[in-house]
Design goal:
Number of strands: 0
Keywords: Chloroplast, Membrane, NAD, NADP, Plastid, Plastoquinone, Quinone, Thylakoid, Translocase, Transmembrane, Transmembrane helix, Transport
Number of helices: 20
InterPro entries: NADH-Q_OxRdtase_suN/2 (IPR010096), ND/Mrp_TM (IPR001750), Ndh2_N (IPR045693)
Number of domains: 1
Structural class: mainly alpha
Helix content: over 70%
Order of helices and strands: HHHHHHHHHHHHHHHHHHHH
GO molecular function, one term: NADH dehydrogenase (ubiquinone) activity
Shape: globular
Family: Belongs to the complex I subunit 2 family.
Largest sheet: none
Oligomer: single chain
Radius of gyration: 23 Å
Subunit structure: NDH is composed of at least 16 different subunits, 5 of which are encoded in the nucleus.
């Protein structure tokens, strides 16, 4: 009996330390959701989304336990750097699933496909964060892109959603072709090596400099499409505007987590001898992204389209931390700001989703006089919009201050002043919405309120609006108060590079 207990204990210990166990849990939950949807004719929404929430929470708990056990395998390499971004993706899933469920129930769309695609995309993003060879990176990146494409076309009867899905598919295919060309060049020059560390030792940089430069350019352009960096950002506003609002929230966060993590490892490991070249190129892309994103956002009338352009500028801010290339503070500033951005941005969409469900519009003008109709919807952006704009004292100010300071110390002299100026510009269009909420009535009748249902109960049971309001308040407080605890967050993220 003692031997059996000892063997069982060793088996559990080995299983818990399995580096891909969090991803395995998500795969099992994905299969469970699909099977339950096929077998349950009554479409029990409560069960489907509880499976999503429970499995994601367990996966996050396992990942936190594994944090102290860095493991290296042939195709995967876990470290604090990778685990942080995997954990961010799990946080994104937990924060966004409830709002997407409410949206789907109100829109009367298929129930199981949304959590299935979100799980698949989150799974691909987590694998992308710690993939250690070119094939795994490419396959996980394409898996993430295809899942995102299906989500953008989720409302099949909406012609704008179909258009967004088609544009996303075409742009993603073009960027993938360039990325694959760069990968194939590295594969050939290194003598058939796939692992990132082996490629560095196998490439004769002095003999094949022109081809290596072409490979760097192809990979840079391919990843710039995924990151929505200027001038490869054209698909982002159209896809944001045509996609369902919860899907837009998914896009705005997931790409800011998985893609920078993969980009940092890919360029930091393979091209250390060309750091000056790709630093200059990416620095220019990031600088123009900040300028174009903030200037064009001022002119937008659609809320979703307006938020698309700040997402372009936000990735420019995040790239400042990547370019700092400091394993103690540079990457820590990037990771810290990414975490704060997740809370701020998901909180912003927590306000937009219920407003869109009630009014059926995303026009900025329709927010006029909102404080008279719904004080909670007004309270949420009042706390969060200053944080997105970098106004003190919310957390966004401290995150940007830490990021820009270490970017300046690392020598990003052109990018940091541009980031400061464009951050001031962003305050205008964030505060413009707040001003509209408190400035009179828009001349229309009271905003129609559609019936909404709780995402975790049967669709036949209607409830009050308190669940969405509580979710908005929690996100608003989290994105605001995280600035108070920024020192512990920074300390955790230091010395996390692979």
């Amino acid at each position: 009996m003692n031997d059996m207990n000892l063997s069982l204990s060793k088996l559990i210990s080995t299983l818990v330390r399995l580096p891909i166990l969090p991803e395995i849990i998500l795969i099992l939950s994905l299969v469970a959701i699909l099977v339950m949807d096929l077998l349950d004719r009554q479409k029990n929404t409560k069960l489907l989304y509880k499976i999503f929430l429970i499995s994601t929470s367990i996966s996050a708990g396992v990942l936190l336990y594994q944090w102290q056990f860095p493991i290296f395998l042939e195709h995967f390499q876990t470290s604090n750097f990778n685990n942080i971004f995997r954990f961010f993706l799990l946080i994104r899933s937990l924060l966004s699933v409830l709002l997407s469920a409410d949206y789907i129930l109100c829109s009367k769309m298929a129930l199981a496909e949304s959590p299935s695609f979100e799980l698949a995309a989150g799974l691909a993003g987590m694998v992308l964060c710690f993939a250690n060879d070119l094939v795994t990176i490419y396959v996980s990146l394409e898996f993430l892109a295809l899942s995102s494409c299906f989500l953008s076309g989720y409302t099949k009867l909406d012609i704008r959603s179909n258009e967004a899905s088609m544009k996303f598919l075409l742009m993603s295919g073009a960027s993938s072709s360039l990325l694959l060309y760069g990968f194939s060049s590295l594969y050939g020059l290194s003598g058939g090596q796939l692992q990132l560390d082996a490629i560095v030792g196998g490439i004769p940089f002095n003999r094949y400099a022109p081809i290596i430069y072409l490979s760097v350019a192809s990979i840079t352009v391919g990843t710039a499409f995924k990151l929505s960096l200027f001038p490869f950002h054209q698909w982002t506003p159209d896809v944001y505007e045509g996609s369902p609002t919860p899907v837009v929230a998914f896009f705005s966060v997931t790409s800011k987590v998985a893609a920078p993590a993969s980009f940092t490892r890919l360029f930091g490991l393979i091209f250390p001898y060309l750091s000056n070249e790709w630093h200059i190129a990416v620095g220019l892309l990031a600088t123009f992204s900040m300028i174009v994103g903030n200037l064009i956002a001022v002119t937008q009338r659609s809320v979703k389209r307006m938020l698309a352009y700040p997402s372009i500028s936000q990735i420019g801010y995040i790239m400042i931390g990547v370019l700092a290339a400091d394993s103690e503070n540079g990457y820590a500033s990037m990771i810290t700001y990414t975490f704060i951005y997740i809370l701020m941005n998901l909180g912003t969409f927590a306000r937009i989703i219920p407003f869109g469900l009630r009014t059926g519009t995303d026009n900025i003008r329709d927010y006029t006089g909102l404080y008279m109709k719904d004080p909670v919807l007004t309270f949420s952006p009042v706390l969060r919009s200053p944080s997105l704009g970098g106004i003190p004292p919310p957390s966004g100010f401290f995150g940007k201050l830490y990021l820009f300071w270490h970017g300046w110390k690392a020598g990003s002299y052109p990018s940091v002043p541009v980031a400061l100026v464009t951050s001031v510009i962003s305050i205008y269009y964030y505060l413009k919405i707040i001003k509209l909420m408190f400035t009179g009535n828009n001349g229309r009748s009271d905003t129609p309120i559609t019936s909404r249902q709780n995402s975790l109960v049967s669709p036949s049971i209607s409830i009050s609006k308190s669940s969405l309001e509580i979710a908005m308040i929690i996100r608003a407080l989290a994105s605001t108060l995280s600035g108070i605890f920024i020192d512990p967050i920074i300390e955790i993220t230091r010395n996390t590079f692979f």
